[in-house]
Every structure is written in C-alpha cells, then in structure tokens.
UniProtKB/TrEMBL annotation:
The lineage of its organism: Bacteria, Bacillati, Actinomycetota, Actinomycetes, Mycobacteriales. This is CYTH domain-containing protein. It comes from the Bacteria. Pfam families: CYTH. SUPFAM superfamilies: CYTH-like phosphatases. Residues 6-226 form the CYTH domain. Residues 61-82, 224-247 are annotated as: Disordered. Residues 224-236 have a biased composition (Low complexity).
C-alpha cells in the first residue's frame, strides 16, 4: 500500500459568519487568484484509548471528500507539520472502537512515538471526534522565479500556485464522554509544496524558506486587515474535543 509524505505550513484564523472573504489579488507578489471551489469534507479523528497521540500533538484522521481524501497522519516538526497520507480504502474503520489504521501510517507513527502500536496486530485505536466541513477553496498564484526577473524586460511571465486559501464552515462532535457539538467558521492559508520547493530566483541568493514565509506573512496580514483574528486553537481537532482535550 502506497503512502505520500509532505510538509504542511499554514496559518489559521477565526472569523465570524459575516466576515467577507478577502481579495488577495492586490497583495504584493500575487500573480492571480483562482476561481473558488467548494468541497464537502467529513473526517473522523482517532487515537489510542489513553490518547497517546493527542498528548504528543499528533493527529490521525480519515477524511472523505476533496482532492486529498484518505488517511492523514500529522506529526509536529521544527517547521510546520509533517503530513503522511494513505488511501481512503486502506486500513479498517468499520468499528469505531477497534480501528486499524493503514500499516504504512502505523510504521511512521511508531518511529515518531515508540509507545504507539507498531503494526496491524497490536493496533488499538478509537474514534475521538467527528468534524464535517463545507470548504471554499481559492488558489493564490505567485510568479515563478524566472518571470520575476523578466518582469522589467517585458518577457511573458509564468506563475504557479503559491498558497491555498480555505474558508471553512465547520460542524464538529466530540465522541469521548462529555463531548459536545460545536459550529464555527475559520480561515486557513497553506503554502503549496511548489513554493516550499522554490529554491532561488536564478542567482542562488534567495532562501526558499524566507521567500515562502514572506509570502505567507503578506497574505496573513491581508486576512487580518479583512477582519480575521489569529486563531487561538492549533487545529480543528482541539476545537472539536473541547473540554475532553487532555492536559
């Protein structure tokens, strides 16, 4: 069974229902804004009965809907989060009290957290939260390195997706004892893999992290100016678990 591995770098914002979506086309460095797409996402989050993953800031979910549906394992890192994906039909989630995640994710999880189950035979996971989301997605484009230098010379510019803006309308339900139903709206801005791999502008002088971080900061400042606030919650799971979140 195959799995994929990528870096997730994003910022989250809390917004009320009346806050209008910002137009990022005027932000410095933005080459264009794509048409809005809408997806209906439904995710169940899992953990060991003693919540080993949640206590170690690790997230395991199985999500249907959207272009990246499947199993997602998120691990903390020094920059963003490491996100490992496996197909939706991998593993076994038919019994919410005895879930078997995909073997590839279990192996990755065990490397990061040796106390966690290492294989299918020892897997013992339960459903801890349900999160449903109507997601409105807009791609924010950025000029390619070569076209930045060509702008003054009049040569045609090329661009690629630099970030993804998500306007999320979320409903959640905590599945542990004492869990409650909640509703909220939030924005996410996530850097694309392409901009994180965008090494330099042709002369080898620009650090890709600095360029990507500067771009993300400009988009974030524009979102704040539109009425958003930096989210006090690091994830939808934390919000969904509410008072059942372990210390």
């Amino acid at each position: 069974m195959s799995s994929t591995d990528q870096l997730e770098v994003e910022v989250k914002f809390s917004v009320d229902d009346a806050t209008p979506v910002p137009d990022f086309s005027s932000v410095e460095g933005v080459a264009g804004v794509g048409a809005e797409q809408r997806f209906t996402l439904s995710a169940t989050y899992y953990d060991t009965p003693d919540l080993q993953l949640t206590r170690n800031k690790i997230t395991l979910r199985r999500r249907s809907g959207g272009p990246d549906e499947g199993w997602h394992l998120k691990l903390p890192g020094t920059r963003g989060r490491r996100e490992v994906h496996a197909p939706l039909d991998a593993g076994d989630a038919t019994d919410s009290h005895h879930v078997r995640p995909p073997r590839a994710l279990l192996e990755t999880l065990h490397e990061a957290l040796p106390a966690a189950p290492a294989d299918d035979d020892s897997a013992d996971f339960i459903a801890i939260a349900q999160v449903d989301n109507e997601r409105h997605v807009t791609d924010v484009m950025v000029d390619s390195p070569s076209s930045r230098g060509d702008a003054e010379s009049g040569k045609s510019a090329t661009s690629y997706k630099g970030a993804e803006f998500c306007d999320d309308h979320v409903s959640s339900r905590g599945l542990l004892e004492g869990g409650q139903a909640q509703h909220w709206r939030e924005w996410e801005i996530e850097l694309s893999p392409e901009i994180l791999d965008d090494r330099n502008d042709g002369d080898g002088q620009r650090d890709n992290h600095s360029f990507a971080d500067d771009f993300l900061d400009r988009l974030s400042q524009h979102a704040l100016a539109a009425g958003a606030k930096k989210s006090s919650s690091p994830s939808k799971l934390v919000m969904a678990m509410g008072d059942t979140m372990p210390d």
